[in-house]
Design brief:
single chain, about 475 residues, alpha/beta, 9-stranded parallel sheet, 7-stranded mixed sheet, binds dihydropyrimidine-2,4(1H,3H)-dione, binds zinc ion
Length: about 475
Amino acid sequence: MSQFDLVIKNGVVATASDTFKCDIAIRDGKIVQMGDNLSGGAQEIDAEGKYVLPGGIDSHVHISQPSGEGIVMADDFESGTLSALFGGNTTIMPFCLQEKGTPLRETLKDYHDQAEGKCYTDVSFHLIICDPTNAVLGQDLPALIADGYTSLKVFMTYQDLRLDDASILRTLDVARDTGATVMVHCENEDAIRFLIEKHEKAGDVAPRVHATTRPVAVEREATHRALALAEVVDVPIVIVHVSNGEARDEISRARSRGSKVVGETCPQYLMLTADDLDGMDWEGAKFVCSPPPRDKAAQADCWRGIENGVFELFSSDHCPFRYDDPQGKLTPKGRTSFRHIPNGIPGVETRMPILFSEGVMKGRIDINRFVAMTSTNHAKTYGLYPQKGTIAIGADADIAIWDPAEKRTVRHADLHDGSDYSPYEGLELTGWPTTIVLGGKVMVRDGTLTGEKGDGRYRHASTRSFPAPV
Ligand code: DUC
Ligand code: ZN
Ligand code: ZN
């Protein structure tokens, strides 16, 4: 009988802090030995010339989320996790959207039922809180947090989802008391409504106007306000999908005042601009997401935030709709005005190849920062560390082997999500994940699927330990 289930040999291992050459031995789903010349694996992989990295964790992914009447998200748990897997991820964190008037636990069970037996990666949910009644904040939420659903998202925009400041404060206070982590979508809804009405009245209804009506000022103001509210409550927060330098600077200033803030940015803010929303024949709808992509200067500012550590998380905000589909971007109502175009773009499979190619290969960040921003910091922020997010003895054997020499041009036809386009079609990228191991099982070997639907499991998360919940 073999001593190990799997040995990965001759690769260059990189964690968030170190890079070293060593073999990795895996047994019963965990890393059990690291060292030179390990052998005795029932299965062995030669990773000579490759990077051996912790599997990616994408902590911002939308799957099967109700998105309005007649609109259907392009991914279910099967296609979404398969796409994530081929993009180098071993864990994703989708959102469970609270339904007003339905107990949170019931909605959560529904998401679990949809995910059960379908996943190719591990999964852990965040809760979107859009109806923070006394019962929700007083009983339901604390009980769910104690059961391992330890992160929440709140919105400052969208009429159906937005919380007013009083509700945000009460929700943050629950997070302070319980050790939960709150993610905030920062855009000022009243200012957006004002601009939408003005532009629609003037007959400006094309996709590009989506960006015009969500300018940097609405994001900067809401970011400042969210940070101030968290400071009042004295609780850490995550500012998600930051798109520009002005919002980024709000985070820096809050940190210099002593606040604990985690900043997240996404590939669309490095690679796209508002000009992409100008596409002919409504093609700009393919790039409609919130906050919208900005301009070249904002892209450079986001890169600077990655380089200097203001951003600790790099997530996809994968929120996929099909383009050429009446249930997607080209919904009949969406053709009449930008305001009805479903909001979000696909990207779970291209997130890490984009940061690897544009960041590591172009010398903007080193491989350790790549690991931190795509895996380790997600596990630390959302209570999955150290089981996930690193390569260490005792950790889950979730590993992605990357070939830094592999060059590919992004073609949606080669991707695995349920959408019918990629916003990055034609982009040439160097460095791709080629072999993926989940809990010790080889899921993808040299680009070929070897794992099965249902190999991915649900993972509960721990609460934050700082500051000590009361
Ligand atoms: N916010 C997200 O986080 N994702 C998609 C759309 C949105 O507004
Ligand atoms: Zn959001
Ligand atoms: Zn999102």
